[in-house]
Amino acid sequence: TQDELIVITDIFAGSVNNEFVRFLSRPNFHLLSGLNLPLIIDLLISAGEENTEKLISEALTSAKESIQYCNQTIASAMTIDKDF
């Protein structure tokens, strides 16, 4: 099998992302935007996964879930603590 290439850019439709869009028709090329550290970590940890599209989908879900508005998250946690 051929190697899979996953490219992650910071901003969708930004200049770097636009440069890589021209490679989308290549086999085994995957372009992601919205760079964040949990996404990169998940992809690196699971690099040996056979199904690259599944790997990417799961990493994107995990990365989205890692984004928090700390004011609300901490306030909610404090409210729960007070209830117990």
From TrEMBL:
Q: Supply one GO molecular-function term.
A: transferase activity
InterPro entries with a match to the protein in the record: Bacterial_PTS_sugar_comp, PTS_EIIA_man-typ, PTS_EIIA_man-typ_sf
Q: Mind listing the GO biological process terms from this record?
A: phosphoenolpyruvate-dependent sugar phosphotransferase system
Q: Which domain of life is it from?
A: Bacteria
Gene Ontology cellular component terms for the protein in this record? membrane
Give one Pfam family: EIIA-man
Q: Which UniProt keywords apply?
A: Sugar transport, Transferase, Transport
Domain PTS EIIA type-4, first and last residues per copy? 1-67
Instruction: Give the matching PANTHER family.
Output: PTS PERMEASE-RELATED-RELATED, PTS SYSTEM MANNOSE-SPECIFIC EIIAB COMPONENT-RELATED
Q: What is this protein called?
A: PTS sugar transporter
